[in-house]
Amino acid sequence: MSELVTKEQKIETRTGVERIAGFTIGVATAVSVLAVLGATTAYAQDKYLLKSPSGIAFSDFKGYEDWAVVSSARTDEVLKVIVANPTMIMAYKAGVPRNGQPFPAGSMIVKLQWKPKKSKEAPFVVDVPDVFTQAFVMEKDSKRFPKSGGWGYAVFNYEAASDRFTADPKSLSDCGHSCHTAVKAKDYIFHPYEKR
After folding, report:
1. How confident is the model at residue 176 (pLDDT cuts 50, 70, 90)?
2. Which of 31, 74, 127, 195 is deepest in the core (most CB within 10 A)?
């Protein structure tokens, strides 16, 4: 009988030790996973903390990824999709700038740019977006930008290899103004909101 009790005690002792060891390994694994996730989060970029040299905050454009499409454009090197915030879309739908009225304060527009590539899936020749490169932003605030028709301009470049945005150091608040003066009569906006 004492032999039986000793074996049972050893089994129970071994099971208890195994349980403790298993629990310790489980806790250590969980702590390691949380540490890795924490480090990844700590190093993940919050693009909305960026500001252009002129002080235009990328956070002003938060949610631009879901804004309505105004237009698209293409050069030999770049595919562009132009999106606008709800304030600007409502103004477009009310006839601005064709009706001679300016866009209201708070209007924002973003030109998203990609390097193109030929589609391998389409049964016809067509370029599709490949690598995202840049967000060119404009915001209407006549008090902040009185010298550029009320519009502030900034460029936020994207580097795919590092998955990071940077504020373009050459991007002053009027960087796009000299180009946009060609469409002053349209409140400095090139792209119309076409029928759809």
Report:
1. confident
2. 127
